[in-house]
């Protein structure tokens, strides 16, 4: 069952320890899920999507085939 728990940027960076700039670069390139806009100055990510992406990135890194979710 899919969870609809949303997490903020600080939480994303705690579970996926990259710089803020790297995270947004990966979002722009399509290798990390885009956030949901909750207003003009607030964004959040779906926890399941983030965990799935991180898992996929780990698999790709082990294979050595580049980045991508």
Q: What labels would you give this structure?
A:
mainly alpha, 12% strand, 69 residues, 3 helices, 3 strands
Write a structural description.
This protein has one domain. It is 49% helix and 12% strand. The two termini are 20 Å apart. Strands 1-3-2 form a three-stranded antiparallel β-sheet. The radius of gyration is 12 Å and the shape is globular.
Give a brief outline of the structure.
The chain has three helices and three strands, in the order βααββα. It has 69 residues and is mainly α.
Shape: globular
The main β sheet shows up as:
3 strands, antiparallel
Which parts are unreliable, with pLDDT below 50 for 5 consecutive residues or more?
none
Structural class: mainly alpha
Helical amount among residues, as a percent range?
40-55%
Series of H and E elements: EHHEEH
Spatial strand arrangement across the major sheet: 1-3-2
Number of strands: 3
Q: Mean of residue pLDDT? A: 90
End-to-end gap = 20 Å
- Helix run count: 3
Number of domains: 1
Determine Rg (CA atoms, Å). 12 Å
Give the amount of beta strand, in percent.
5-15%
Task: List the topology elements.
Elements: E1 6-7, H1 9-15, H2 20-29, E2 36-37, E3 43-46, H3 47-63
Antiparallel strand pairs: 1-3, 2-3
